[in-house]
Every structure is written in structure tokens, then in C-alpha cells.
Write a structure and sequence with these properties.
InterPro entries: CheY-like_superfamily (IPR011006), OmpR/PhoB-type_DNA-bd (IPR001867), Sig_transdc_resp-reg_receiver (IPR001789), WalR-like (IPR039420), WH-like_DNA-bd_sf (IPR036388). This is Response regulator. The structure is a single chain. By secondary structure, the chain is α/β, with parallel strands linked by helices. The chain has two domains: 119 residues, 3-Layer(aba) Sandwich (Rossmann fold), CATH 3.40.50; 95 residues, Winged helix-like DNA-binding domain superfamily/Winged helix DNA-binding domain (Arc Repressor Mutant, subunit A). The protein is built from eight helices and eleven strands. A hairpin with a 2-residue loop joins β6 and β7. α2 runs parallel beside α3, α6 crosses α7 and α6 crosses α8. The longest helix has 16 residues.
Amino acid sequence: MRLLLVEDNVELSEWLGAILQKEGFALDCVHDAEAANVLLGSGGYDVVLLDLKLPHASGQSVLRRLRRRLDQTPVMVTTASDSLDMKVECLNAGADDYMVKPFEIRELAARIKALIRRRSGSATSILSCADLSYDTNTRLFSLAGQALALPQREHRLLEALLMNQGHTLSKASLMQSVFGLDAESGEDALELYVHRLRHKLEASQAAIVTLRGLGYLLTRREQP
């Protein structure tokens, strides 16, 4: 699960980022509206945590710009303002949730996971594709009822594919999910992890399909 944290308070963002990473989230942090707009233009995030008071432009402007592009990435506004008018304004502009600082980390993590489940079309914490399942609470995969343990990058790759099953994900989007912004990795590395996952899913009813020139998608394996 890849998050974008947009927060102008560097000390707060570092503290919050460290805690969310311990909760199992992959995280990118930016501190102003311009940087947020650049990263959001490339896509690849499961949830955006958006402060309202930012340098260069407001959080509301970032939100409105995102929605004008018809980008449906879930956005949770995190702000010190408990104004009802501000809350209504943000929700009307396309925010999916609104939390007032200070907040409990457990509640924040639970709300993030709820947004991700809603986006994936699941009412529970369990996401499935054929006999492959993933529990968004425990972050564990199972295949035909048996635990499927994966190295970190393979885990991130399969997580992104399962959460977007039936939808094609570009190589650029998957590379961001798997490697993040700081890692220097190319398409060859991504293809290697896809190959390793396909080997581990050989006996599964779920399959990773390549759409040449477009990317990859996870779907139920076609029967011969």
C-alpha cells in the first residue's frame, strides 16, 4: 500500500512517516503543493494524506486539481482545523475523509485501510482473485488456503496487482509501487520480479498477464 503524505511540517511528517512505515505502508513525503502536484501527476498511490496549509498553494487546490484530472485516488485531509465549514468544503471538493490533528495513529491506519478497501470494491479486509487472497489488515497473502510468504518487493508488486485486479497497471506505476522514488531500478528489475511471482503462482487460478506496450494485470487464469 503506497501513500503520499503532503505535510509542510517536516518534523511532523518525519515522525508520522516513520510510524506509518512501521504499520507496513510504503510512503513518500513532500512538503509543498508544487511537489505534490508533480508526484500525483504520475499516479501510483493508494491514498493521499493531505494537509491544507501548504507553501505555494493550498491543499484544497491540490485536491481540486487532482479531481479535475478525474483521478479517483482516495484523499484524506489531515488538518488542525476542526471547522465544519472547512470540512464540508473539502468533502464537496472530492475529499474522501477528514481527520483533525492531533489524531490517534491506530485510527488513522484503520481509516487508510478502509479507504483502500472501498477503492478495491471490498466491504471486508479480504481481497481475492480466484484462489489468491490478501488480508489488508494483517498484510498476509494466502494461496488456496495456505500462507504465501514473499520477499518485500515481490510482496509490494503482488499487493499492487491484487488491489487493482482486472485493471492494467503500467510499468511506471508498478515501479513506483515496488521501488519507490529513491531506488534506482529499471524495467529489467521489474520484469525479474514479475517472472519470480509467476513462478510462485504457477499452480494458482490467478495469473499475471502482460499486455504488451501497456503493462500488467492480475486476473483469473483462463482454463485450457
